[in-house]
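Kindly review this record before class:
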Amino acid sequence: MKMIALAGNPNAGKTTVFNGLTGTRQHVGNYPGVTVEIKKGVIKKTDFALVDLPGIYSLTPYSEEERVARNMLWKENPDLIVNVVDSSNLERNLYLTLQLMEFGIPVVLNLNMQDLALAKGWKIDTKKLSQTMGLPVVETVGHKNKGFDELIKSVKVALGASQRVSQTAHFSDSVNRALDILEKKLSKENASGASRWLALKLLEGDPDIEQEIANAEIKQTARELVNDLEREHNKEIETLLAEQRYKYIEGVFLQCVSSKLSFKKPLSSKIDAIVLNKYAGIPIFLIMMYLVFQLTFTVGEPMMGWVESAFAWLGDLIASFWPEGSESLLKSLLVDGIIGGVGGVLVFLPNILLLFLAISILEDSGYMARAAFIMDRLMNKIGLHGKSFIPMLIGFGCSVPAIMATRTLDNRRDRLVTMLVVPLMSCGARLPIYTLIIPAFFPSKWHAPMLWLIYIIGILLAIISAKLMRVTIFKGETVPFMMELPPYHFPSLKGTLIHMWDRGKLYLQKAGTLILGLSILLWALSTFPMLSKERIEEYDAQRETIVQSELADSLQAIQLSALDNLQAEESVEYSAAGRLGKFIEPVIVPMGFDWRIGTSLVGAFAAKEVFVSTLGVVYSVGDADEESESLRSKLKKNYDPLIAFCIMLFSLISAPCMATIAVTKRESNSWKWAMFQLIGLTLLAYFITVAVYQIGRLAGL
């Protein structure tokens, strides 16, 4: 199968072109060994594989994306490159085009966004451009699905007549003489890749290429040639090569582009005058984010209910195959373990799809680049990038999509710091704990301030943690905030929906399977070992005694319910989860916690909401949801406001759920950072909670 690489600058419409060429015949994955995302697909009506490289401005490997793109072209040696350029920014985009031509792999130049070029009053002579640069040129308007058939035809023709020649005619005679010398030496060594391109990279001082070349004589020759060129031109070699590329591009642009003077201010500039205003910018951004949350969590609420109802119906259907009251282990595994585990994952799918739909619309329209620009100054003070603000904001809804949203960050250091602190944003899964604890222990006038305080503590801890990590384990210069502000345009419906589904599918495939497995594990821990047969028979005998008594039916029902609760509490205490709670009790006592809270924290590792239901089972109050007054009264009887506050504090700081850890592993491509997050947040939660509890006790609270 022929392999074609799709390359281009960020915001050149490359994703839209990729979607237009492949349709739904595509999948997303990480490039081996790194977290940079690579899309792969098959071009429609062909058997050509299409690989979408990350958006880059050049092939000089300063960033992870540039290194991935360079290595893919160098190591995997595609048959053809389709270079997508923004026609309205042609001069700047052609710099990458020249570097692609230097590889020696045949290139088809795709002039995308032709409508924007025309709107600027530009007319590009594609025939002259093709003749001047010596490569096929095809025009497209990606978001309107125009020109894709012509692009596919051009690809087929180029593949049939492909000749691999490294194009370096845009360099001066002295540079090309140096390349000739190195190319001859490299050809004798049978070096991997095009010898002329390797020669060029040696002149540029590319460390990866220098490491690849074992011959010390060749590397010494390269250094001597570089010294000669720098003396001759009185410039550093990188500056010299860049200037010669730009000089060539300027000549091409003047020959092939004519312009009609336009005195109209572009619409994008008019909009930016409002949305980037130093006074109005942040309020507008907050309104936009409010609308995103409104869509995600308000519109998604009914759909979550449908998913929950569907799984409840499925659970009831499965349970109906057993007699009422049956205690079958298979029934419990299917209903509580498997269906409950899958349901716990899928219930968030509507929110995640809606969230990525909204983010995709904001990104594709051009607004998200402005949002990052607005927040950069504030984020930079804590050692984070402007783009980090978006995932942190999403974290108030759910940590899983928030960590997935760190993919928008260009620098790996910024990605890791952001995904490690995102769980400190108080997600919606913690809200049931807060709504259980606060009304039980604090007067009504303190309800809102206590909830606000918990959220603020999480934000402050995230800021402090990010700053500490940036000056210690992630030490390094802050990456300058450089982001092109693309023109505003209406997103492609097809591209937006594909982007939304890609992320939703990833959530299901990666996080969902692990959640399911661990949910079954937690079911087993809370089920086994079971009470002895003799002990169960004792409870059954007591039930029979109650049923045979002459008490009124209502009193019998109360006594039977109390007996069921007592058996449930003993079963939990006897199970592995209960024993684990007893085992960790000496460790959690300094926080003011007992084995019941410890057991509930074990269950909360699956999902924070489980803390409430587990606590209800431990205290044997039947249906223990967050509105259960009987659970609140039992908690109030056993604990005080200081312990209650410590429960909320520990729940806030510790890792929110196993899905978060799974997604961190997925996005960091390393169990090391996932475990660092889990252990680090747990220790941070422990020490802060111990300090608060002990200081509170000393203060007489």
Q: What stands out?
A: The CA atoms of residues 502 and 517 lie 23 Å apart.
